[in-house]
Amino acid sequence: MEKLCSVTLVDDSIYEGDEEFRLVLGSPISDSAGGAILGHRNTTIVTIKDDNDKPIIKLEKNRYTVKEPEKAGESSILKIPVVRSGDLSKLSLIRIHTKDGSAKSGVDYVPYSKELQFQPNVSRLEVEVEILYDGEKEHREAFTLHLKPDRKLVAEVKEPKAIIYIQEMDIVADVTFPTRPMIVSLRDYDDAGKASKEPVSGYPVVCITPCNPKYPDFSRTGNICSREGINDTLTQYRWRVSAPSGQDGVTSELRDVESATFFSGTHHITLDSIYFTSGSRVQCAARAVSKDGDAGLELSSVAVIISKDEGLCAPKLEGSVGAEPFTAKMRYTGPSDPENPNLIKLTITIPHWDGMLPVISTRKLTNFELTLSPDGLRVGTHKCSNLLDYYELQTKHGFLTNATKNPNVVGEVEPYQHSAQMRSEPTLRFYRNLDLEACMWEFTSYYDMSELVNECGGTIATDGQVLNLVQSYVSVRVPLYVSYIFHSPVATGGWQHNDLSSQLRLTFVYDTAILWQHGIGAPEESHLQGYLYPTRMTIGQDGKLLVNFRTEPRFRGQFVLSHP
Which CATH superfamily does the domain covering 56-167 fall into? Predict the structure, then answer.
């Protein structure tokens, strides 16, 4: 037999955690004979769970979507509620802040960080995040909003993160080419359908998209490109190259070509021949662009292997990098030169072979990743070199000029050799110094004596005066550094090089002692004749040159220092 004992609990809104009380059986009273006695279990503990009153703070939702403003200068406000439930009788301090994702603070939204104060009996606060117009056409971007723990240690924070998506008004275009692009040698650009599967070594390669009129199947793909609204002149290119396969046949992985130089780029329709050699694998990736200028999807070509059998300038000995030395000459032009009188002419001739980039300078060449880049370091360091384009020169002349064709070569040796549209103007100015028929580089420049000493690092030395002669000898010495450079996808910095150096010397003979012996005479056509003989030259304490001289008149009279 059993009886129920009911205990009434009083509900309140104050969170008190787990509470306990004891229920105890008292002294039994019974009318039956012998009475009743208590058993061993005459007391129990009752625990009151207060889960409903536990204070909890959270973001109302964990995902929000907001539209980007339509016009520049406009902004929109996203209101995000932060709610508190349970016991509201105490103060809670919660830090809330934003964090970048694909959306960036200051560009796509205004960063937000604030401490929220939940005063007693406050159950809801709103946070306002400002969304900005960025003017870019992108996919949906996102950032996050985070809640920190209660600084008062009163409330528990749940669901502390919300993702905010910014719906772009103008999204990235979804245009794409109807089929893969293809790679051929630039010499085969006009007849790509019959081009060799292995482009020739030593000449640029070109990436032909299905929307290019040179594409072999353009009669079919051209209509698709028109319907898609693709503007092929805006196509974005990317190139990947791998080192030649080893003797064991193992191929290296393709790597993005990022080693741009001051005269050649790596995101053009063509890739210059300095970036590959015979046996290299080359791949291009082309991104379609709509007529509105919106970039779409990217497609990659099938990788091609550069021919090992066909090239424009093969080395005399396979693998003999740097075995063919350069020649350098320095001479004085004299006053009779019709174009460059009284200057010192420097001419450097370098044998060429496929994939080689020759660099010359009067300063030591190091760190080719920076030296070859468009960065301004080379301009300030190598003032007398072929690393400077004509508009970067700090001397009157340079090895590169604004000319794009070699005057010694008639016509084109290869198709599109002088096409600025396919190869760029800086590239043509550099390759103007290469004779493809002779496979020979020739760099020529002119300098005066001051430029050689002050800008080129040259030095002047006096070789003395020969006894009993009225002539003196002066030599100018100019250091010369030459590097044969090759691109390597696996080398540190992207370049391998073979370095050579030399010193150019030019000796001048001049008649200074003749002044002491014969003096300085008046011109023959002068009515009054006379001579001036230097007797001593010294430099005073003030740095001025003091010249003592005697005179010899050849007329009736004498020289005077001044005359009224």
Answer: CalX-beta domain (2.60.40.2030)
